[in-house]
Amino acid sequence: MRSEESRKPTVPASAEASVDAIAGAGAEDEAARLPDYAERVLDVAELIPPGRVMTYGDIAEWLGEGGPRQVGRAMALYGGAVPWWRVVRSDGVLLPGHELSALDHYREEGTPLREAARSAEGHVPRLDMKRARWDGADTGEGAHI
Q: What is the pLDDT of residues 6-22, one digit of tens each?
């Protein structure tokens, strides 16, 4: 699991100083706390085995609240400390702007991919969702988070 320190969002030093100046030193701790929903999203992302993926919607359904956009927002803001490349779009398209980094992880983990058509822009493969998608079974956790 992530340490509490790695769960804190990164706050620029200038913003940190402004928060302290306006509201006192205790405000920084309050602002740096990870929201409960985001914490649960990240916990699920950590459960996804290497070589497997879950969609944003899968995670929302597994948690029983929120939706794909809420999961995506939590991952965008706080997901850097977890295997973010395992939380994906349902169509298997790689995360725009992070395709090459994600592709390195997928190849290292043996995640099933579908080669891109020659006409596809950049020839970047997609995830083979039928083979790569994980349903959350065999977590060893016993129950959903």
A: 444 433 343 333 334 43
